[in-house]
Amino acid sequence: WVMGDLRNLSTTMFVARALRRAPALRSAAPSLACRSLATGPASGGAVSDEMLDKLGTLSTQALVDGLWVMGWPPAMVEGARGLKPGQKCKGRAITLRMVPQRPDIAADKPAGEISPEYEAFELCGPKEVLCISSVGPWESVGGDIKFLRLKQLGLGGLVTDGSVRDTDEILSYGFPCFSHSTTAKQGPAAMQPWECNGVIELGQTNPVVVRPGDAIIGDQDGVVVVPAAAAEKVYEIAHFRETVEGIIKEELVKNPGPPGKYYPFKPPIKPESPLGKLLDSKGVKYYSTRAAPAPRRSTPARFGSGRRQLSTAPPTMRAVVIRENGPAESLKYETGFPTPSLADGQVLVKNEYTGINFIDTYFRKGGPAYTQQLPFVSGQEGGGTIVDVTPKAAAAGLAAGQRVAYSVLGTYCEYTAVPAAKVVQVPDGVGLEQAVACMTQGFTAHYLTNHAHAGLVKPGEWMLIHGVGGGTCQWAAQMAKLKGYKVIGTCPKGKEGVDGATACDELIVTDTIAGTPYEDYSSVDIVGKVMEVTNGEGVKAVIDGIGASTVDISLDSLARRGIFVTFGNASGAVPAFPPIRLIKKSLFMTRPKMLDYVSTREELMMRADEVFGWIASGDLKVGIDKTFDLEDAVAGHQYLEAGKSKGKLLYKI
Q: What integer pLDDT is reported at residue 570 of this predicted model?
């Protein structure tokens, strides 16, 4: 979901830069903007790290077969060969389009660090493959100086239908490189980088389309582009075919004979055929992989297309959908949205509640760090009852009728498809509303008070927590006390009563700022009060979800070798500042996110067990401030953003 918006962001930035550099283009700005509305989305979907790793275990030949069975066009990049034998790569595509040299293009192209090629470079990392379309097979797309940056970024691989130069140096950089050939020519004389993360073609004679985010897999045979929209199905088919081919080869080694008895095989495999009998003898389950036409994408694919026919859920559902980014009014309540389909390993949950969180407002508004491909169902935590289970999910112990909570994207709706690894069963003694409230704010508060501070604060030492009057930090204050820390909390006037639940050792009450979700932190000398309470030493950790309004207060309140944990942007993002600012007290700083603290099933369950245990024992109070009907989605966001909440906000489905 990131790639489409990265492409749009890159295009917008490019046009703006070009207009600044070329006054004559300014009058063309309206037509440029209008033309952009006619383009389709750059990205066709998202490939998870798990799926990427699975695809990387298969040969490119198997992936080509998988796409062939599905009826997709050829996907091998002709002419892209490894610079040395044995190279392999896997990653999500970052694309860069070169265009032929022309004086006006050379003049208008952003120069230096803001050139489209360097924008593309900075999007790269170990899970990305940079795909560069050249204007000719012998034209150079780069050499040792440019590609040094890719080495520094730990690039997962480079693929081009052009050539590279400074071959010895590039080989020493260590990242896999697949190109038409090598060359001594310089590229700028023939072409210029023009667009980062748009749709490109790779291959000089029979080009293959590459969209940002597609899976790029390379091995000794060549490079294959697996469309993100088809990655899971391609893997399923390709893995099956590779398994079958292994059985055929084993049989031919054991009983030499013409391969034609078993190979090549085409779908469907008939049980009475020699291959069908061979697979039956091995206990291998096989199925019809009849070729199907590639999906027609005259309209954007929607969440839930390709629905399983055996589910007990209806084909459509109620949902709150965002079709364009913007204010709370962008939340659209719909009654005929497609119910999601299930992939093996998932369950279908009939939601009873879904949580409202500040991060939902960030995705609703959109921006470089908070983008989803439009349209999308909002929300990222929910809970209800399992109504449909796939075989792999059943093997993990999940069954229809179980009460569960979870955190995934797309929860403001009646039904959500949830990976089994993300599902938490709700124990007796914990209400479903409480469990749903835990999934984002509760678990965030848990990692903030237990692990994000990296042990730089010890039980018995002081911790400053901003905004304990509601939301995540109402939880965090309680958990910090349960773990033995001494807590100074801040909250606005009118929310002092929340302190009864949070039990802060010291509470600093500030004035309010009408219509905002945060208080007036300049109305009280918070740093002075912190120093007074701590005998001039300061606190060992600050947990700050406010952002821009409190960064100075937080840093100035820290003790020597204290840590600033900034996790939210209620008043705006923390502005950039030079690291030298931390030297006065040798301070630490971290900007964590929850996904990195529930990265494994074991870690998720560790947090769930402790938080649910506190709730069941009565040690942790879950403040449910207000519950809105799903139809009133707009009102829920407006209430949150106006700073009215004194606890968790929910939608009732």
A: 81
Neighbours of 288 (CB within 10 A): 8
What are 60-106's pLDDT values in tens digits?
A: 999 998 888 888 888 999 989 999 988 999 999 999 999 998 888 88
- In angstroms, the CA 461 to CA 432 distance is 34
Determine if the pTM surpasses 0.85: no
Is-contact 339 304, C-beta < 8 A? Answer: yes
Asked if 448 and 412 count as a contact pair (C-beta separation under 8 A), the reply is no
128 bridge partner residues:
92
Question: Using CA atoms, how far apart are residues 136 and 180, in angstroms rounded to an integer?
Answer: 9
What are φ and ψ of residue 490, in 5° steps?
A: -120, 145
**What are the residues facing 178 on neighbouring strands?**
82, 159
3 state SS for 177-190: EEECEECCCCCCCC
Calculate ∠ Cα 605-462-437, nearest 5°: 35
In 497-557, which residue ranges form alpha helices assigned H by DSSP? Answer: 499-502, 526-533, 551-556
Residue for token digits 């009014």? 329
Alpha-carbon distance of 415 to 385, in angstroms, equals 10
CB under 8 Å to 253, separation ≥6 — which residues? none
Question: C-alpha 576: how far from its chain's center?
Answer: 23
Task: Give the whole-number percent of the chain exceeding pLDDT 90.
Answer: 59
Q: Which two tokens stand for residue 376?
A: 């999308």
- The stretches in the chain having pLDDT less than 50 are 1-37, 287-311
